[in-house]
Design brief:
Elements lengths: L6 H4 L6 H8 L1 H4 L8 H6 L15 E4 L20 H4 L14 H6 L1 H6 L4 E4 L3 E3 L2 E2 L6 E2 L6 E7 L6 H13 L3 E6 L9 E2 H4 L24 E2 L5 E2 L14 H4 L11 E2 L31 H4 L13 H18 L3 E4 L7 H17 L6 E4 L7 H10 L4 E2 L2 H11 L6 H8 L8 H4 L1 E2 L9 H8 L5 H17 L3 E5 L25 H4 L20 H15 L1 H5 L1 E7 L5 E7 L4 E7 L5 E6 L7 E5 L11 E6 L3 E7 L5
Length: 634
């Protein structure tokens, strides 16, 4: 079957420039991205939320299916049958629960009241409702099993509901970020050798195992010594990522023999996504080596993102979302599983489109799940042109100092890695304490210390959030953390309902700071964590130094629990001091020698410096203070 790569037949003319970009390579693209930082806001006459810099935001991350059910009529996504057809079962943690875009819109007062200025929306595209082997099925409630990249999942609402949400968010002066995926689609493509019971050839005992390039080249069928196919194809590496080269890849049976099951030939949108030639078709990734980029992510169809046609297609798809809904930013899923050349084309094209549509401060932040390896995360800002990355290193160090009890000088080593980020990307990168993949900070804390009193749990969770709000980066709240949710683990176990839940494994959890359970509606604006976070958000919003000021470490004890730093503006500093241990301390903290007097933004601050360049702090167990110096020129 000939590969249908004819540009005019498959893609809009606007995307064709991506073919040229791919041939030019990363160096030619470097100048395409709009300026980051204050210059971007000053360049045009933009006002309101559009003018805010990315580092001025406070992000609230929400999975719509688990938040609020505003329209029960869409719970089954207009699909007949039982739960294995439509995916709706509010009693099962791995199925749709009924939350939707209308419910989220109805709760914007709650989110904005917390202090959030931007909403990061989990993927809302049409998903394959249910997939998985018999007895281990689950639903696409999370949004990562996409069949139609151009429309809203019927379980979550309609295009009108999405438009209403976007309008309501923007009317409040907030921003709306979309979670996007370019690495894979839902699991539709199968392989004859290990999926079709009627296949009479080789049967693999270990399933669709990854088949490597060295053993299964693109130019032979069935291995290195097999029949020659795809004459003239030069491989997927640069400098061969051109339309002309990929036009020669006409036979995609180099590793497996892919096919689309009956009834699913046209299930994906845009239509080009239905062609197996746009996929790697090499079997399941081991998440190591080349398979990390070329293998199927748990069976999900892995796109051949080296192909310029795929690059152009995704640029078209996500530019349309910006144009249609005035989206303010993208969180990009599974960055490390896509070749860097894709991002070197995609990111500049998206940023340019946003700028041309009056969005000079559009942000893109990538997800590269390298827990505990901050340097590896930073490289994506230098190599692949990401303005920012989700800061997995931050989550790791917060866990180590507040859960494992490591000395605070580990924070020194962590923040020193900021120098490896491109420009000020570390300051634009979202920081977080937990999320839908790795679980909640409170859950990790309780699992590590099951006998810890509730009062101490509450203080440690609050401290983790304080470090997130006052240190460099963009604080990113995971929905439910402000209500004391305590997950039993990661992934499905950390995706509780804010609306009344019917999931037993959620409802038996003892929440922090409240007597409520997840069986009740949890939108309590008087919850102690909600109030504490709202106060942190107020400080951050009112103090430009906390949002944009340079971070200067003041004290990190080698064997103890005191950590202090300043956020420095032109004429003053904001000093943040934390006691991460469970005993009171009185400590001298270095400050700028021009800082003589202080006022409290939170906690008990001394009125005057103890001596030139030193302030004495009394810190209660597991507490923090935030103090603003007087202006240095006064």
């Amino acid at each position: 079957m000939a590969k249908q790569i004819g540009a005019a037949r498959v893609f809009g003319s606007a995307a064709l420039a991506a073919f040229g970009f791919a041939a030019l390579g990363a160096c030619a693209l470097a100048g395409e991205a709009p300026a980051a930082g204050p210059a971007a806001a000053e360049a045009g006459a933009v006002t309101g939320h559009v003018a805010r810099l990315p580092q001025d935001e406070i992000i609230y991350f929400v999975l719509p299916d688990r938040f609020e059910n505003g329209d029960p009529s869409n719970d089954k996504g207009a699909i007949e049958g039982d739960r294995l057809d439509h995916g709706f079962d509010p009693t099962a943690k791995g199925f749709y629960h009924g939350g939707d875009l209308k419910g989220l819109t109805d709760r914007l007062d709650y989110i904005q009241g917390l202090g959030a200025t931007a909403i990061w929306l989990g993927p809302i595209y049409q998903n394959k409702a249910v997939q998985g082997p018999p007895g281990d099925e689950s639903a696409g409630y999370h949004g990562y099993w996409i069949t139609d990249f151009t429309s809203v999942d019927d379980h979550l609402g309609s295009e009108a509901d999405m438009a209403a949400l976007s309008a309501a968010v923007h009317e409040r002066g907030m921003k709306l970020y979309l979670d996007i995926i370019t690495n894979h689609t839902a699991d539709v493509i199968q392989y004859r050798e290990c999926a079709d019971p009627e296949w009479t050839g080789e049967t693999l005992k270990d399933g669709c195992a990854y088949r490597a390039l060295g053993e299964y080249p693109y130019t032979t069928h069935g291995g290195r010594e097999g029949e020659a196919i795809n004459p003239g194809f030069m491989g997927h590496f640069q400098p061969f990522q051109t339309p002309e080269n990929f036009a020669r890849l006409t036979d995609n049976s180099f590793a497996y023999t892919p096919y689309v099951p009956a009834g699913e030939a046209d299930v994906k949108t845009p239509a080009w996504l239905n062609d197996p030639h746009y996929y790697h078709n090499r079997g399941n990734s081991t998440f190591e080596g080349e398979s990390s980029a070329l293998g199927d992510f748990g069976g999900l169809d892995d796109l051949m993102t080296e192909d310029p046609a795929v690059v152009a297609g995704f640029i078209d798809i996500f530019r349309d979302w910006i144009t249609k809904y005035r989206i303010d930013g993208f969180r990009v899923d599974t960055v490390k599983h896509v070749n860097g050349e894709f991002w070197q084309v995609f990111n500049p094209a998206i940023l340019t489109h946003a700028r041309e549509n009056g969005l000079p401060n559009f942000t893109i932040f990538g997800e590269a799940y390298h827990a505990g390896d901050a340097a590896w995360v930073a490289r994506y800002t230098r190599e692949d042109g990401f303005p920012a990355m989700l800061d997995f290193g931050f989550q790791d160090i917060v866990r180590r100092v507040l859960i494992d009890g490591e000395p605070t000088n580990g924070l020194t080593r962590f923040f020193a890695i900021d120098d490896l980020y491109e420009g000020d990307s570390a300051y634009q990168s979202p920081t977080f304490t937990g999320n839908h993949d790795m679980g909640r900070f409170a859950g990790q804390l309780r699992l590590a210390h099951p006998a810890m009193p509730n009062e101490e749990l509450l203080k440690r969770v609050e401290l983790a959030h304080a470090l997130m709000f006052f240190a460099r980066g963009i604080p990113t709240l995971y929905y439910g953390d402000e209500q004391g949710f305590v997950s039993d683990g990661n992934d499905q176990l950390a995706r509780e309902d804010m609306m009344p839940s019917q999931v037993a494994v959620y409802n038996d959890n003892d929440l922090i700071g409240t007597d409520a359970t997840t069986a009740e509606s949890n939108f309590d604006t008087r919850h102690p964590l909600y109030l504490a976070i709202r106060n942190m958000a107020r400080i951050r919003t009112e103090e430009e130094a906390v949002r944009r000021g340079k971070q200067v470490e003041r004290l990190a004890e080698e064997g103890g629990g005191i950590y202090a730093f300043s956020r420095v503006a032109d004429e003053h500093e904001v000093v943040v001091a934390m006691n991460l241990r469970n005993e009171p301390r009185v400590v001298g903290i270095p400050v700028d020698s021009r800082s003589r007097g202080f006022r409290s933004l939170s906690g008990n601050c001394p009125a005057l410096a103890k001596a030139t360049g030193v302030v004495e702090m009394e810190l209660a167990p597991l507490s923090y203070v935030v103090c603003r110096s007087g202006n240095w020129k006064d």
